[in-house]
Design a protein that fits this description.
7-stranded parallel beta sheet, 10 helices, alpha/beta
Length: about 260
């Protein structure tokens, strides 16, 4: 496959890949420009299968001949590892990065109409937790995800990498009116289940068949958890029984356990 050799880290053709470790800079650059970065062969292939349009590929020059499953019209740039590191800000040990065009997110009513089991995330702003949660959701029967306005970007490179590309498998929408969105979800026929370690909770395993019929599981940020407004808007407060004095789990771990229980 033909490619252009990159020897200058300041080459304007590879502007999409600059300073990938600078979260603030990337957050200001990627969503407004309708782009995201995928890292590694597996994740890139999953993005392509998910219907995302490829913009370009940046690859270690030693790996050019190994990229045999890209679209025939793919724009490819190749450089030596030190050049790639100078561009991106880190050692590209997977050897390949790709820039993709984002797609418009579905409207909330459309998302809800096609889902039976829902995850609703409030203030989840850690990219690794978000990526892990999307991976668990895809594996354990969650049909769609709703994000509060202050959640992290699921298509940020670290989220995509941790999810192993499963962010492309789960449809999601971002709320523009919070917590009013929770009323919209309930009106669509879901039961709002708030995960919280506080008092007055019931074990997930004790939910009734009616409460399991169309569950919308609310999960909050690591540490603060769900806000009082989200807790007040929920129908049921649920928890995972703990032992040995442990009061909570990492949000991605708790989510995986809850997803499994709700899909049984």
């Amino acid at each position: 496959m033909p490619y252009a050799e990159i020897t200058d880290p300041d080459d304007e053709r590879i502007a999409d890949y600059r300073a990938l470790t600078d979260v603030e800079l990337r957050t200001k650059w990627e969503p407004p420009n309708g782009l995201f970065i995928a890292e590694g062969d597996l994740v890139i292939q999953r993005a392509l299968r998910g219907g995302y349009r490829l913009r370009s590929v940046l690859v270690d020059e030693k790996r050019v001949s190994q990229l045999t499953e890209l679209p025939p019209d793919a724009v490819m740039y190749a450089g030596a590892p030190p050049v790639l590191e100078a561009i991106t800000g880190f050692h590209v040990h997977r050897g390949v990065l790709a820039s993709f065009h984002r797609r418009p997110l579905p409207e909330l009513p459309e998302l809800l109409a096609g889902a039976r089991r829902l995850a609703v995330l409030e203030g989840l702003n850690t990219h690794t937790n978000l990526g892990a949660l999307f991976r668990s959701a895809a594996a354990l029967g969650i049909d769609a995800i709703v994000l509060s306005p202050d959640c992290a970007d699921p298509l940020y490179r670290r989220s995509v990498r941790v999810s192993m590309g499963e962010v492309f498998a789960i449809p999601y929408a971002k709320s523009t009116a919070w917590p009013e969105t929770l009323d919209t979800i309930r009106t669509a026929g879901f039961t709002l289940l708030a995960m919280t370690p506080g008092p007055g909770t019931i074990p997930l395993a004790d939910l009734s068949p009616a409460q399991r019929e169309r569950p919308a599981l609310l999960l909050g940020a690591e540490g603060p958890g769900l806000t009082r407004r989200a807790l007040a808007a929920s129908d049921v407060h649920v928890a995972i029984p703990m032992h040995h004095g442990v009061d909570s789990l990492n949000v991605a771990t708790a989510a995986a356990i809850a997803f499994y229980e709700l899909s049984r």
